[in-house]
Amino acid sequence: MGCFFSNRRKAEKESQPEGGEERPKQYSWDQREKVNPKDYMFSGLKDETVGRLPGQVAGQQFLIQDCENCNIYIFDHSATITIDDCTNCVIFLGPVKGSVFFRNCRDCKCTLACQQFRVRDCRKLEVFLCCATQPIIESSTNIKFGCFQWYYPELAFQFKDAGLSIFNNTWSNIHDFTPVSGELNWSLLPENAVVQDHVPLPTTEELKAVRVSTEANRSIVPVSRGQRQKNSDESCLVVLFAGDYTIANARKLIDEMVGKGFFLVQTKEVSMKAEDAQRVFGEKAPDFLPLLNKGPVIALEFNGDGAVEGCQLIVNEIFNGTKMFVSESKETASGDVDSFYNFADIQMGI
């Protein structure tokens, strides 16, 4: 009677090629499609319109360098993007999981979304930005910022793939590492700036297939006023708790409030603990504690005379039955806003 293991060794020996050399082992990573760095780079271009369609970058790193008078559109999410030595270019970048870094660029106009944004040794940039952390400029002048305002059908999914929240946008909270006494190296673009006048839509047939809109009411990222001067002393805080329709409810509330003439100042999506709720919601905290375990909350700050009453009316009429925190009065609203956003900024390290 034969031995199983001896038979197996015999079979393995017979399967070896002549000459006694064993076939190299095949591993799963050997089967992966090889990445060509040139597919994730635009370099040395002049007077061209180029881009990548949804699905063509798929979370890889990307490099843009030494381009002049070019229109560049990355309609996909990526890991990080570096832009070096570019002049007079129009650039759109889909959601970037990590950092976007501009170095030694001038006269460029951009729309982009990222986790971290940094500019060094640049001048005359216009940036419509969505950034989860505080944007940083260094050794740069005449950098102008506006709020990200862009839509195409795949963009919401790309934000998720990049791990970015459309509600975490500190686009106007700029930190200048190299300030000059008596000068301001950065400013905010006019509130009525038309995005398409700065970052026009692509004109090539291939890129026109991406159905882009730059209308404010269609923007994936809510268009906020950020740190612009407030029009009124009255603000209102609304906090929505995690559920199946939280994002849709937040968008609906924004549309209703903006439609009635109020201004969206800022938004935030962040996880809360019981002690955070106690600090922000005060005596109402026990009502909301069971909801905190369901996921992050979304907070919205609205501004304008009558914002508190206007918001309460909309919430009662449209969202009756949906649990939300809404500032009770004009007198308490300012404290509500300060308490929540101070907590949220600390939580997010801003």
From TrEMBL:
Region (Disordered): 1-30
SMART domains recorded: CARP
Cell membrane listed as a keyword: yes
PROSITE patterns in UniProt: C_CAP_COFACTOR_C (PS51329), NDPK_LIKE (PS51374)
Compartments, as annotated in UniProt: Cell membrane
Keywords carried by this UniProt record: Cell membrane, GTP-binding, GTPase activation, Lipoprotein, Membrane, Myristate, Nucleotide-binding, Palmitate
Residues annotated as domain C-CAP/cofactor C-like: 24-179
Lipidation (N-myristoyl glycine): G2
BP GO terms, sorted: post-Golgi vesicle-mediated transport
Keyword set includes Lipoprotein: yes
Residues bound to GTP: G98, S99, Q115, Q116, F117, R118
Source organism superkingdom: Eukaryota
InterPro entries: C-CAP_CF_C-like, CAP/MinC_C, CAP_C_sf, CARP_motif, NDK-like_dom_sf, Tubulin-bd_cofactor_C_dom, XRP2
Mode of membrane association: Lipid-anchor
Lipidation positions, renumbered (S-palmitoyl cysteine): C3
Biased composition (Basic and acidic residues): 9-30
Job of this protein: Acts as a GTPase-activating protein (GAP) involved in trafficking between the Golgi and the ciliary membrane. Involved in localization of proteins, such as NPHP3, to the cilium membrane by inducing hydrolysis of GTP ARL3, leading to the release of UNC119 (or UNC119B). Acts as a GTPase-activating protein (GAP) for tubulin in concert with tubulin-specific chaperone C, but does not enhance tubulin heterodimerization. Acts as a guanine nucleotide dissociation inhibitor towards ADP-ribosylation factor-like proteins.
Record's protein name: Protein XRP2
Organism: Odobenus rosmarus divergens (Pacific walrus)
